[in-house]
């Protein structure tokens, strides 16, 4: 372990004092051997641990520019190109690493250091171009140079190109391979170049002293020192620290994660105001932390809110120059520390900052173990799609030059660093760098374009900035309480995306709306099945007769009537009759197990049961009054066929449908007349018309039948009942669709997938095909779309509690590379919210819990007031 003063040499005096004070409390006191020059006759030098990893990666993918380091320096004064070239070559002479190539010697990689190397300065004159063309050409050349690969075997691994923009403006492009350099090294090179050019341009000798050691000396020292007890002490800490750590940070991505990353990337940045930056610095000082710790704590909050994980692991690069003799060297010293933070228990930000401080200090106290050695020892489960141990990197940098801080400023030389050229590469899923300057704080994110699009990172940066502003304003809040969304985003999610209000018959009952349709189209076919059909007038009369019998038996509003019948015209008559009597129907599938039917009859406390004689004989024992429509029709038909006086209201139940019970005991969901009317009347997903022929392919106990029956009967369309056996054979089913002239149909996702896989052209005659009830496979949607698709193909989503459908998605809009199918947008008079555990909206793309609001909601669960109160809550976003 390094001497304490040397370990923190790169820190400011204030940070150094704080770091020393805290480390002393931990009892860290050991000191390593000094770095001394190696024996020059001992053969080729070994690679450092960091170099070895890059060498190995280059063997896997030779010729890649992924690990290029690129920088540009601007000269705003007349330039002596010969003095500049002389300065560059003096730097090459001073630093052996710039004369180094890499070869395999006796089966091991080795540093091959050339005795002499002359670096040519390539000069390109673009000054004759028009200003716009000149700037475009300079940008093109910079990008081209930044992406030009290096040959580690032949070298050289440093290139210099001078662009002449005018007589007094030049740009020097410097490109190096990461295996011989890092960001600090660029600072060293820039400082030495500034100093040497100032001397050589006026004929003076180099003022720089010779270097006492070289990078290869460090590599030899590192391998000799990091072994035995020293290595074990370091490893013991990291093994304990990372025991049980999650292997992945599951960030929400725009694109599916590829098995092998391309490392293509892009960059975005945003700036915090000076006032916010100062507030964060003041917070850090009050809490005995550094600004890095505060920013890391805030970033951990963002990751936690995006992933819902409480065990967050990020990597943080460290200069690795924790000894004074390495500060003046060019070379690859960077080490990466693994920062693991516990966010469990919803701590306040101040409490979280304390946790991050302890993690950070512990990592700094054990920073000498190279990350490459840590991976080698821990051996995390290999995943070609992810970086080992962490996938997100975080660091804080200072615009003031670290090397300049170490060596002092060189004066009177007009050289300035230029903005970094975007190399189009990303080493990690996300690489976050916070730049600290007098102008405030700038947050920059380099991101993998394999995973994220530009918009998602733009939103992420906005959320991070918003979070930092909120932390600066009130660090006493808990992690879950900090808002992430901007006011604009919140308005868009809560208001704009839920602006679905549409006029419909919200005060009418279903049978009232049906009777109004009878008045308009009495002679149109209302329902057909197996060669039989009834007009709207005929269906109305028979339903009225059933209703009168039911009223005689005590059926009125809020009274539940069971109906156990297979798909048929009689089923439709029975349902209408129950509603006209004022009651609500409880569909009982004859194919349900006896135990489930018995439970439903008892739980619903039905007063009357409509069925057929043959089915009545198969029902489990019960005490309910039974009306068999087939056996008793002769007497029922003697009832008046006139419309009855309406007793029910729109808020009364129209039916009670039971959930599957897959997550517990089946529950009766109470659906009102208004909720059904909202589902089919003046909707934004389909416009049903009088000439439509709507298939009833669902059992009455499946809530899709709500759309089928009422979608047809409230619009003057024909309800075409399809027997179950017709849907079992896809080819026969396809023929039935065409023969019966079906124009609108809903299918379960399972049936849709089956038919699409066997007869993809089965739906070509349909005006609209809706499917839902389960997660759809985009493969079969594409199969339909590339065959002979229906005019409209809609993916419908909605739990029973939202009356059949809550949202819809036009499947024709499915992106070509999508692996999932969207649930789309809310229905008319419906609101959808994705909320976190505090019922606050989450950012776009972040997982949360779906909340549904609007007129389609059920009244609650039958006979379960406490569960209803738990699941059906007041909408916090409406007045």
Topology at a glance:
Elements: H1 4-7, H2 13-26, H3 49-60, E1 68-75, H4 81-94, E2 100-105, E3 108-113, E4 121-125, H5 131-146, E5 158-164, E6 170-177, H6 183-200, H7 215-225, H8 228-242, E7 265-272, H9 274-286, H10 291-307, E8 311-318, E9 335-342, H11 349-365, H12 371-378, E10 392-398, H13 402-407, E11 415-417, E12 430-437, E13 440-448, H14 454-473, H15 487-494, H16 510-520, E14 525-529, E15 532-535, H17 536-552, E16 560-563, H18 569-580, E17 584-587, H19 594-604, E18 608-611, H20 613-616, E19 625-628, H21 633-636, E20 653-658, E21 668-672, H22 673-680, E22 693-696, H23 704-713, E23 718-721, H24 730-739, E24 744-748, H25 749-758, E25 768-772, H26 778-786, E26 792-797, E27 807-810, E28 825-826, E29 830-835, E30 849-854, E31 860-861, H27 865-871
Parallel strand pairs: 4-5, 10-12, 14-23, 16-17, 16-18, 18-19, 22-23, 24-25, 25-26
Antiparallel strand pairs: 1-6, 1-11, 2-3, 5-6, 7-13, 8-9, 12-13, 14-15, 20-21, 21-31, 26-27, 27-28, 29-30
Which keywords apply here?
27 helices, 31 strands, 35% helix, five-stranded mixed β-sheet
Give the total of beta strands.
Answer: 31
In angstroms, what is the radius of gyration? 37 Å
Categorize the overall geometry. Answer: elongated
Spatial strand order of the main sheet: 4-5-6-1-11
Give the strand content: 15-25%
Q: Largest beta sheet, briefly? A: 5 strands, mixed
In which range does the helix fraction lie?
25-40%
Ends apart, CA distance between termini: 63 Å
Low-confidence stretches: 1-10, 13-17, 23-31, 400-419
Rounded average pLDDT = 90
Structural class estimated from helices and strands:
alpha/beta
Annotation field: number of helices: 27
């Amino acid at each position: 372990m390094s001497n304490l003063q040397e370990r923190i040499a790169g820190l400011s005096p204030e940070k150094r004092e704080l770091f020393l004070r805290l480390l002393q409390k931990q009892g860290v006191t050991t000191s390593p051997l000094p770095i001394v020059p190696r024996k020059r006759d001992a053969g080729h030098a070994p690679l450092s641990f960091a170099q070895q990893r890059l060498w190995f990666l280059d063997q896997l993918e030779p010729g890649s520019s992924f690990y290029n380091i690129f920088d540009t320096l601007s000269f705003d004064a007349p330039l002596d190109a010969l003095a500049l070239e002389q300065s560059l070559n003096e730097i090459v002479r001073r630093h052996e690493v710039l004369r180094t190539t890499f070869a395999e010697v006796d089966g091991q990689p080795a540093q091959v250091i050339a005795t002499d190397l002359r670096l040519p300065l390539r000069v390109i004159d673009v000054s004759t171009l028009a200003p716009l063309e000149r700037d475009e050409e300079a940008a093109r050349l910079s990008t081209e140079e930044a992406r030009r690969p290096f040959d580690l075997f032949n070298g050289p691994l440093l290139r210099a190109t001078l662009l002449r923009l005018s007589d007094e403006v030049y740009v020097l492009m410097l490109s190096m391979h990461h295996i011989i350099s890092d960001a600090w090294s660029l600072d060293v090179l820039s400082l030495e170049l500034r100093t040497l050019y100032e001397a050589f341009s006026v004929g003076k000798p180099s003022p720089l002293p010779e270097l006492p050691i070289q990078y290869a000396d460090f590599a030899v020292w590192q391998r000799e020192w990091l072994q035995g007890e020293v290595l074990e002490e370091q490893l013991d800490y990291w093994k304990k620290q990372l025991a049980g750590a999650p292997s992945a940070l599951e960030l929400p991505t725009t694109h599916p994660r590829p098995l092998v990353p391309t490392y293509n990337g892009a960059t975005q940045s945003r700036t915090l105001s000076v006032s916010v930056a100062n507030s964060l610095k003041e917070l850090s000082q009050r809490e005995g932390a550094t600004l890095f710790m505060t920013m890391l704590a805030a970033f951990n909050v963002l990751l936690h809110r995006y992933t819902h994980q409480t065990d967050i692991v990020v990597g943080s690069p460290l200069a690795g120059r924790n000894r004074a003799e390495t500060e003046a060297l060019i070379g690859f010293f960077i080490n990466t520390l693994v920062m693991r933070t516990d966010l469990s228990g919803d701590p306040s930000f101040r409490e979280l900052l304390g946790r991050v401080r302890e993690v950070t200090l512990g990592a700094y106290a054990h920073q000498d173990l190279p990350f490459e050695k840590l991976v080698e020892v821990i051996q995390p489960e290999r995943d070609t799609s992810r970086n080992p141990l962490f996938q997100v990197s975080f660091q804080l940098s200072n615009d003031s030059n670290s090397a300049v801080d170490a060596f002092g400023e060189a004066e009177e030389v007009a050289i300035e660093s230029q903005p970094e050229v975007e190399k189009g590469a990303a080493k990690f899923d996300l690489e976050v760098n916070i730049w600290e300057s007098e102008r405030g704080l700038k947050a920059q994110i380099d991101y993998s374009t394999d995973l994220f699009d530009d918009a998602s990172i733009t939103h992420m940066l906005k959320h991070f900035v918003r979070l930092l502003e909120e932390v600066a304003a009130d660090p006493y809040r808990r992690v879950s309480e900090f808002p992430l969304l901007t006011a604009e985003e919140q308005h868009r999610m809560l208001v704009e995306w839920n602006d679905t209000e549409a006029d419909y018959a919200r005060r009418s009952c279903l049978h009232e709306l049906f009777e109004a349709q009878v008045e308009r189209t009495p002679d149109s076919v209302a329902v057909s099945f197996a060669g039989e059909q009834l007009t709207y007038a005929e269906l109305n009369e028979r339903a009225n007769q059933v209703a009168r019998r039911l009223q005689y038996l005590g059926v009125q509003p809020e009274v539940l009537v069971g109906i156990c019948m297979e798909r048929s015209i009689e089923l439709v008559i029975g349902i209408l009759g129950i509603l006209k009597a004022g009651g609500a129907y409880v569909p009982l599938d004859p194919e349900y197990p006896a135990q489930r039917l018995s439970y439903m009859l008892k739980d619903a406390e039905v007063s009357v049961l409509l069925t057929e004689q043959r089915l009545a004989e198969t029902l489990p024992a019960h005490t309910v009054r039974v009306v068999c429509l087939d056996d008793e029709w002769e007497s029922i038909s003697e009832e008046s066929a006139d419309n009855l006086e309406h007793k029910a209201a729109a808020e009364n139940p129209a039916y009670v449908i039971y959930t599957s019970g897959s997550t517990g005991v089946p529950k009766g969901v109470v659906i009102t007349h208004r909720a059904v009317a909202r589902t089919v009347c003046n909707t934004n997903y389909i416009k049903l018309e009088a000439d439509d022929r709507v298939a009833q392919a669902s059992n009455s106990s499946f809530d899709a039948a709500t759309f089928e029956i009422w979608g047809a009967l409230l619009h003057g369309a024909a309800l075409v009942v399809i027997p179950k056996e017709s849907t079992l054979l896809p080819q026969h089913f396809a023929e039935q669709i065409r023969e019966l002239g079906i124009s609108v149909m809903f299918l379960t996702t399972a049936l849709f997938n089956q038919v699409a896989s066997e007869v993809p052209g089965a739906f070509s005659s349909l005006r609209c095909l809706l499917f839902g009830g389960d997660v759809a496979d985009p493969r079969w949607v594409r199969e339909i779309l590339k065959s002979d698709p229906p005019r409209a193909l809609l993916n419908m989503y909605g739990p029973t509690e939202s009356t059949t459908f809550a949202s819809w998605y036009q499947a024709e809009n499915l992106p070509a590379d999508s692996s999932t199918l969207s649930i789309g947008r809310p229905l008319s008079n419906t609101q959808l919210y994705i909320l976190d555990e505090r019922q606050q909206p989450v950012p776009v793309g972040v997982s949360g819990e779906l909340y549904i609001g609007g007129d389609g909601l059920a009244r609650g669960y039958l006979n379960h007031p406490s569960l209803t109160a738990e699941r059906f809550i007041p909408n916090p976003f409406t007045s």
